[in-house]
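Name: Haloacid dehalogenase, type II
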Amino acid sequence: MFAVSAKGGCRVDNSIKAFVFDVYGTLFDVTAIKKECEELYPGYGEKISQTWRSKQVEYFMLRQLMDNYATLYAITHDALKYALNENDLQPSKENEQKLLAAYLHLPLYSESKEVLTQLKDKNLVIFSNGSHDMLDPLVKNAGLDELFDQILSIDDVKQFKPTPASYQYALEQLGIESHEVLFMSSNGWDVSGAKSFGFQTAWINRKGMPVEELDLEPDYIFDDLTGLLKWK
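Structure predicted for Haloacid dehalogenase, type II:
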């Protein structure tokens, strides 16, 4: 898969001491949840899944702004209820629990495990807005738990990315300098937050989207995770 440096050329910074990964949309395909949505609500799978994800992100950012923390698991449940109500679908505790359980078994992107395996001699770290009650089972179910040196959740400090406090927490856990971190995410807002904080960043731009207009250009832009094999 094609990979480029956002600053041009194919430079590799060998000062990197930690390769830090976001989870949802970066390692795991969140959009795949539409299959389970479609099975339970025929004809509405795409609509439910799109609203569910957008409201999930909107709600944790709103809760951060309002200083009204809830775990991402609780927020994911609330976002699901909204998505069902938006489509005039009758809420069902049974269906809600099935869909929430599916979030613990999201599929990996096709290259995720192979890339991580090839980089296993590096310091590999997960850093996610996911709370441990949904993050830890997801990683274990996918067989990735033994590939990572640390699994960090903002739930430990109750500060959602992209707040500076969230990245500061990760940095303190890593015990290195900010410029020695390469942070990977498929979410432009997350990459921008990490770049603003001082991390080096690699945007996994799976959808071919334009760079966010925040004057915080990523250090690297890759189509998928295979671009990280430059550091193998």
